[in-house]
Amino acid sequence: MNHPAALLLPAPRLAEERDGILSLSDGAPVTVASPDLLPLADLLVESLHAATGVRPSAPRTGASAPGGIHLLVEPSDEGIAAIPPARGVSPDGSPLDTERFSVLVDPDGAGLVGSGAAGLHHATTVFRALAEQSPRQGSALSIPAVRILDGPALAWRGLSFDVVRNAFSRAEVLRVIDLLERYRMNVLHLHLTDEQGWRLEIPSRPALTPPGTPYFSEEDFSAIVAHASARHITVVPEIDMPGHSGAAIAAYPELSPTGIAQPVIADPMEATARMAAEDFAPQFLDPRKDEVWAFVDEVIGAVAARTPGPYLHIGGDEAFGMPQELHDAFVTRTREIVRAHGKEPVGWQETVRSAAEPGELVQLWIGEDPLPDAGENPFFRMLPPRLIDMLATTFGEAGGDPRRMIAQRARVIMSRTDVAYLDAPYAEPSAEPEEEALRSRLGLPTYPAVTIESVATARIPGFDEDSDLDIIGFEAAIWCETVQSFDDLTFLLLPRLPALAQRAWDAGPARPWEDLRPRLAAQEPLWRRDGLAFFAAPSVRGR
Ligand code: TNX
C-alpha cells in the first residue's frame, strides 16, 4: 500500500515518511494554541467526520494532549522558515509568507503548524487528506507517521467559473469552493454576467434579474463569500463589460450604441447564431452615453460593497465590433470607478491595450493559435465571413498583448486557453463505456481535445521556461456553453482541476506523469464518496 503522503495532491515539497502509527478515534482531543483558531479547528473536525466517519472531540484552547491534534500559528517555526515565501500577488492582500505550513504525525499525536492562518488551513486539508487515505482499524484510523513541510510557490491560484452560460445554485457553488479548498486553491473568480444572463442581484437595477431568471440574491452572494473566506479563498467577482453585455442591454437598451431593445437568448449556441445574422449590429456598453456611467458606477459600487477581497474583475474581453478608441475610453474610466470604490481592477488581456498603468492586473487567456484555420474547423465553417472578420480583428491584436504586458509591467494571471481551459473536450475514450456520450457532448469543439497527461504536463511560460512576463497568478477556467448540470460541470473539472492546482502550487516544470498519476487515481474514490461526477480517464487508472 502507498503511504498516504505519497497520494497527496498537490504533492508537497517535502514528505518524510516515518516509523509508527497514530491511532485516531472518536473523541480524540483537538487543541488550539489560541482561541482565534477555534473556527478553523471546528472546520477540521467537521470535515474529518464527513470524510472518515471518525469524529474527534470539540476543539478547546490549550496545550496539546496525547493522541490528539494540535493547531498552532508560528511564523518563526524552524522547519517552516526553510520554505521560501510564495511569489506573485496574494489575492486577499495578506503577506506572501503566510501560506507555509508543516504537518507532523507521530504515535503521540498530530501537530499542524502554519506560518499564518492560511498556512494552518492548508495543514488541516493535508491532515484530512492523510486521514482519508489511511486504513481503518475497528472504529479508529491508523495514520502512518510522517513529517510534511510545504507552501505554494505562487500566491494566486484560482478557478475562473462561468455561472452564466449554465446557472448554478448557491449550494452548488459552495461545493465548487470545497473542491478548491481540497486542492489548496485560493481564488474563486466568478463570471457573473454575460450575453445569456445576469446572475447577481443589484437592488437598484431590478430589471437585470427579472423574476423567473436564476440569479444570486445579495444574501446568496454573501453566503458564498463567507463560505469561501472561512476556507481562505478569495472571491473575485467579474462583471463582464463592455462586450459580453447582452443581458445588461436587454434590461436597459439605452446602454448600447443603437438603443434598440433585444431579448436575452439563453442558449449560447443560439446567441452565436444571432451574431451571425445579416442584421446584427455590434452590442456593447457605449462610453459616449451618460447612462452607461451611471450604470457602471452603480453596479461596481454594489458589487464592491459586498466583496471583502481587494480585487474586482471588469472583464473587457471580446468586445466584437467595438472601435478600439471606445474600448480604451470604457476600460480607462471603469478602472477609475473601481478604484473610487476602494478595489483594484483586474481585466482580461484585451484591457492591456488601454493605457494600462504599471502594475495593472491582466489575465492572459488567448492561446498561441487563437483562430483555427476557418476552413479546417467545423465550427468556424458555420460562421459567415462578416463574423469571422470581426473575430479576426479582436484576435489579430492578441499576438501583441504579451509584448504590451511586458512593456507596461503588467502583473499577469496566466489562464491561456491551451494550458488552463477546462472546457476543452477530453481526447481519451472513457474507461466507462456508458460515459462516452457525455464525453462527446461536453467541451467546446473549437478547442483541440486534450489528454489528462497533456493538461498535467503542458509547457507554461514562466513555469517551464523563463518569461519576461510578470506572472503573479494562475487560474484554470471553466466556461459552461456545453454544460447543463452540476454533474456536467464536475465531469469537466475532474480530474483536470487538481492537475492544474498542482501546476499552480509548484509554478515550475511539471512533475513527471508517473508521480502524478497515482495521486490523481487516489482522488476517484473520494469523488465517488462525495457524489461528484468525474471523467474516468483510462490513463489515470494506469491503462
Ligand atoms: C472566450 S475566455 C471567452 C468566453 C467563452 C470562452 C469559451 C474569455 C475571456 N472569453 O466568453 O465562454 O472563450 O472557452
What does it look like?
The mean pLDDT is 94. The strands form three sheets. Strands 1, 2, 3, 4, 5, 6, 7 and 8 form an eight-stranded mixed sheet that branches. The chain has an eight-stranded parallel beta barrel with strand order 9-10-13-14-15-16-17-18, surrounded by six helices. Strands 11-12 form a two-stranded antiparallel ribbon. Helix content is 34%, strand content 18%. The radius of gyration is 24 Å and the shape is globular. It contains 19 helices and 18 strands. Helix 1 packs parallel to helix 3 and helix 4 packs parallel to helix 5. Helix 1 links the parallel strand 2 and strand 3. It starts with 13 loop residues before the first strand and ends in a 14-residue tail after the last helix. The protein is an alpha/beta fold. It folds into two domains: 147 residues, Chitobiase, domain 2; 374 residues, Glycosidases (TIM Barrel), CATH 3.20.20. Ligand TNX binds next to loops.
CATH superfamily of the largest domain: Glycosidases
In terms of DSSP E residues, the strand content is 15-25%
Contiguous low-pLDDT stretches (5 residues minimum) are: none
Report the mean per-residue pLDDT as an integer.
94
| CATH-scheme architecture of the largest domain | Alpha-Beta Barrel
**Please, how many domains?**
2
What CATH calls the topology of the largest domain is TIM Barrel
Given this structure, which CATH class of the largest domain is correct?
A: Alpha Beta
